[in-house]
Known about the structure:
The protein is built from eight helices and nine strands. It is of the alpha/beta class. It has two domains: 6-166, TIM Barrel (Alpha-Beta Barrel); 167-224, no CATH class. It has a six-stranded parallel β-sheet. Helix 1 links the parallel strand 1 (19-23) and strand 2 (38-41). The longest helix has 17 residues, at 48-64. 33% of the residues are buried.
Amino acid sequence: AMVKAMDESLGITVPVALHLDHGTYEGAKACVAAGFTSIMFDGSHYDIDENVAKTTELVALAHDHGLSIEAEVGSIGGEEDGVIGMGEVADPAECAKIAALGIDFLAAGIGNIHGKYPANWQGLNFEALDKIHNATDNIPLVLHGGTGIPADMIRKAISLGVSKINVNTECQLSFADATRKYIEAGKDLQGKGFDPRKLLAPGAEAIKATVREKIELFGSANKA
Length: 224
Ligand code: 13P
């Protein structure tokens, strides 16, 4: 997909995007103005006509500024106030409509949810993914809720058109585990171990290790 690279003055040597995740209509516009390099407009909670209308407008705006834009069909569930929504399975015909608007990537619900998966999770719906892939002219598909999806399901999803995978909770859990270990070992009480630059370093390193694992699993190593 088209990815506008971050400013070279930041010393970044690989192409990375500053991407808005699950943006509202107003939020997406604000991020274009603020200099983001990529946006997501999540119109999945609107009816399809309104999702089409708002996505159309934001595609023009984003591309005018050289930004890539992700849209969504079929909302991704997840835990909210202790209730776990199972997530919708997107309708391939609706996916085709949104994909045809010139977006750069499409997030489509296929039984994936944000956060940890419940013990009784049915897994990804590959039949739905296959239908969506066939209906959307090879548009790069986005898999949200990457935390806790087994490696074999990830590989199969990639083989069926998934080219961007969102992982958040797993990074947060890695950070929390490493930080807890540091404090439980009493390291914040030794010397200047309480300095946030020391106290938060193991957590930051743990996030990096998780990201490295994902880069390998997703087949992205050495492709930048
Ligand atoms: P997880 O927190 O479940 O990994 O989901 C991340 C995500 O999809 C963000 O949009």
